[in-house]
C-alpha cells in the first residue's frame, strides 16, 4: 500500500481499548523488501563523481579559524546576555507576583473591614424624635 508520495505505508489496526496502532507482519516484510530495492538502486553511483572522493576545488583560507573563533565568542556573549536578561525577567516576574499577592491580601482585609462596618451601621437604631 503506497501513499501519494509513493512511500509504502504500513498496514495497521487501531485498538481503541489500548489506544495503540498494531502493524501487520506482512506490511513490515513488504517495507523491508522495498527498502532493500531502494538501497540497491542508490548504490549505483554516477560516473561524474564517485562516492567518497575528496572535494579538491574548495579552498580553505587560514583566516577561517580566526573568523570562526570570533563568531563563536560573539555567540557565547549573546547567549550570556540572554541568560542575564532571562534571569532579570524571572526576578521581575517573581517580584510582581509577590506585590500582587500583597495587594490582594490588603484588598481582602479592606473588604472585610467595610463589611463589618456596614453590619455595625445597620445595627444602630434610628435617633428618637
Largest sheet features: 2 strands, antiparallel
The order of strands across the largest sheet is 1-2
Which series of helices and strands comes N to C? Answer: EEHH
Structural class by sheet pairing and helices = mainly alpha
Mean pLDDT: 80
Q: What fraction strand? A: 5-15%
Instruction: Count the E strands.
Output: 2
How many helices?
2
Query: Which shape, going by the Cα principal axes?
Result: elongated
How far the N terminus sits from the C terminus, by CA atoms, comes to: 100 Å
Which percent range fits the helix content? 55-70%
Tell me which oligomeric state these chains represent.
single chain
Alpha carbon gyration radius:
37 Å
- Which residues sit in consecutive blocks of at least 5 with pLDDT less than 50? none
Write the layout of secondary structure elements.
Layout (H helix, E strand, L loop, with lengths): L11 E4 L4 E4 L1 H18 L20 H61 L6
Antiparallel strand pairs: 1-2
Care to describe what's here?
By secondary structure, the protein is mainly alpha-helical. Among the domains are: 12-41; 72-124. The protein has 2 helices and 2 strands. It has helices at residues 25-42, 63-123, and strands at 12-15, 20-23. Strands 1-2 form a two-stranded antiparallel sheet. The model has no long low-confidence stretch (mean pLDDT 80).
